[in-house]
Amino acid sequence: MMSRITCPQLSEKITSAEAAAAEITLGDRVAMSGFTGSGYPKEVPGAVAVRAREAHAAGQDFAIELWTGASTAPELDGVLAEAGAVSKRLPFQSDPTMRRSINSGRTEYVDTHLSHSAQQAWFGFYGNLEVAVVEVAAILPGGLLVPGSSVGNSKTWLDLADRVILEVNSWHPRAYEGFHDVYYGTRRPPERLPIQLLEPMQRIGDPYLRVDPSKVVAVVETNSPDRNLPFKPVDEDSAAIAGHLVDFLRHEIGAGRLPAHLLPLQSGVGNVANAVMADLAASEFEGLTAYTEVIQDGMLDLLDSGKLTSVSATAFSLSAERAADFNERIESYKGRILLRTQEMSNHPEAIRRLGIIAINGMVEADIYGNVNSTHVMGSSIINGIGGSGDFARNAYLNFFVSNSLAKGGAISSIVPFASHIDHTEHDTQILVTEQGLADLRGLSPQARARRIIDSCAHPDYRDRLRDYLDRAVSANPDGQHTPHLLAEALSWHGRYQETGTMRA
Amino acid sequence: MMSRITCPQLSEKITSAEAAAAEITLGDRVAMSGFTGSGYPKEVPGAVAVRAREAHAAGQDFAIELWTGASTAPELDGVLAEAGAVSKRLPFQSDPTMRRSINSGRTEYVDTHLSHSAQQAWFGFYGNLEVAVVEVAAILPGGLLVPGSSVGNSKTWLDLADRVILEVNSWHPRAYEGFHDVYYGTRRPPERLPIQLLEPMQRIGDPYLRVDPSKVVAVVETNSPDRNLPFKPVDEDSAAIAGHLVDFLRHEIGAGRLPAHLLPLQSGVGNVANAVMADLAASEFEGLTAYTEVIQDGMLDLLDSGKLTSVSATAFSLSAERAADFNERIESYKGRILLRTQEMSNHPEAIRRLGIIAINGMVEADIYGNVNSTHVMGSSIINGIGGSGDFARNAYLNFFVSNSLAKGGAISSIVPFASHIDHTEHDTQILVTEQGLADLRGLSPQARARRIIDSCAHPDYRDRLRDYLDRAVSANPDGQHTPHLLAEALSWHGRYQETGTMRA
């Protein structure tokens, strides 16, 4: 069996997770690899959590700032949040324990566009980075690193950190070599150059991450799977949303506004994304491509179906079964999948040039098409904005999708005024619920409102939304652009908080 | 005197504004040149307005859709709105009569990112374009056009329109030739290429607009000045805002996060922008550059001072005196000023690469840093988002500036919840009022709120903002990320609507 560590200088640094964790001290800014539950370090975070618990038991402070690519897993966000070891978190998370830590005020959270995180760290906007903890599939001579199932911000963390801890996880196939494209052409203004990327699968970087071996303070060997959440079968509502969306793509081809092979697809994580992929797999479409953040089960299925020729992303997010299957058949995917740094997968320059079709979930939209992607009832964070803003703003077409109802009908996802706004009316183009699709391009706010209510709102709430709009129109003779009743605008959320339902 | 029209084929099309206006019919989509009151057609719009009035007097419908670069002037937006001749308007306006027409519901308004307007029109998202009316300084053989004081969307309007009307305005110096860079490398996805722009003054296009002479149905000769609003002397509050902002730039240089010559400047239109330019002109800075939308008096002064070496923009917006002076001394500015299409001046790819320092005004910000740039009390539009989103999202640093008070203190520009959101918490970095500057980079929402209230809010409103935040924190034990009291969040605006003041 081939050794995973063939760099003599770094072989000498092999140690335990506990010894590695001793390199991390109170107040450090610690940046870890990991994106949508893949490619995150599996053991050092737990060892840091043990240190934190011991310190706290002894009456001492112990907390770090935690930076990642995006969301990780219970072995990282979960254990560190549980141990009360994270004072500040960025740029994205989706872990239940970390979410509680943020919403209870124990952890400060800086919810950042994913394309902004690496560059802003490099610009020095977040302070000095003391430690990077990066999981890889192999270490080659000279400090070349073969990433595993995600790239995320690892390139930047390795570049910036004073000290580096590597986890070499032999669960990742050694054959990951050749699946990555790490762009080393980044510069800070005013020295920046055009990114010469012309099509989704073009290689513009190196197949390896690089680390200065003299900065590496510890190498930890692991053999542990990624998070690998169970795949949920496509439900009826998700299938309906996907149906509306794919029909609309056909309509746009017919109108001459999309080529027959579409444009590169991006889809956020979740059930609807998988449903869209399933719909496309069963469709007449051919020769599709994807330029996205995350490869889920549905996208691998679409690739297997032959409808999708290739996919560029920054990470996988697979079920356990699909991950095991992928790891077994990995060689068959080589040349059809490329994992990039998240500053390239989400780069405005690339997204706008390639003309992406962007599909992202939402929590709620208001009648004018302002979208909330992050908060429940204005105050509590769910996950974060992630890459949805990078993609929506720069896409050729953007879709925001949601069921029209939540909590068994107690919540309408179409509301008079969004309780938090992550994507403004200037950015949102097409909203889709299981009820239908609202194409908002080129419409004024009032026309948008009529279309959203008619096409997307659940019938149980439609009349009340129309009533709100009608009364707002009447009450604002000099405010017909975006008529609102400010005293009532957030009352649907207030009613839910007081009575448990938005229903009258 | 050199003739302004040396294209034989187009000389034959010279006619009156009235005859030209007859080419525009009910329901046409009509795209006109013009950006911040410069380079807009001066006579044809008025002749269209006369037609509209005559039709209306005869009991007939007459309205058009009106597209432009950005804001125009009374002779365009004003007369057409006054005549009730505009059914839909995009992508930006700032005319008092047009604003009333929108807010009274006579005109639908599609408030669009200025970098999106040309491409989305080309993609077909707004429908077929029947007529373009474009003002130029001269017509050369073969349909080459010398633009005047703005470029805006003229390139796209000339490309897309079925029929073209040209106004040749001899008020613009003939010496404008050589001041423009019209990028003809645009393509639609999936054929797009990198924009090979590496520094603000680089020429990547042609010095001329192009028109297919066979599409030109009329040429109208005019001699009429641009809007040229009076220059307002810098007031005390604007000077204070500029002072905080320029001091902060010094601080960032000291911290190693900005080079000594800064990075290219962008500044929105207005008094604060002029104040910042005045502060820089009196400062120790040297070798500055600008990559912006609009050149105001203050920026010309800065150029004259020698502190600013050059400026790329898409339009001028000068006082009458400064315009007259510029027109007289235009040759002395050649090589130091370049006017581009607005899709290039505002292009995310260029803005992110060059690393712009973006300075834009705001109407209000909420305590978490969500910014309203467009609406009064949620319902009425003021102007529009313009390029503020293009610049803020992609800038190296972005500033949003405002006085802390409006309406003699009856309105606080820092509020619990913004009544409209154009720039979200994910995008806004630095807020400045005459009270001080809040650097929000890398802060969680609660930390942002404390800093905004302490640094930017007027002392008259600070305690009540703190009280709102404190009570929101107490009321949301499980919503500590962005604590709000939804029943109260918009009550400050409601109080203003009911009592004429936000004061308690």
UniProtKB/TrEMBL annotation, chains A, B:
GO terms for molecular function: acetate CoA-transferase activity; acetyl-CoA hydrolase activity. This is Succinyl-CoA:acetate CoA-transferase. InterPro entries: AcetylCoA_hyd_C, AcetylCoA_hyd_C_sf, ActCoA_hydro, ActCoA_hydro_N, NagB/RpiA_transferase-like, Succinate_CoA_transferase. GO terms for biological process: acetate metabolic process; acetyl-CoA metabolic process. The active site is at 293 (5-glutamyl coenzyme a thioester intermediate). It comes from the Bacteria. Residues 9-221 form the Acetyl-CoA hydrolase/transferase N-terminal domain. NCBIfam families: YgfH_subfam (TIGR03458). CoA binds at residues 268-272, 383, 387, 407. Keywords: Transferase. Residues 331-468 form the Acetyl-CoA hydrolase/transferase C-terminal domain. Belongs to the acetyl-CoA hydrolase/transferase family. Transmembrane segments: none annotated. Pfam families: AcetylCoA_hyd_C, AcetylCoA_hydro.
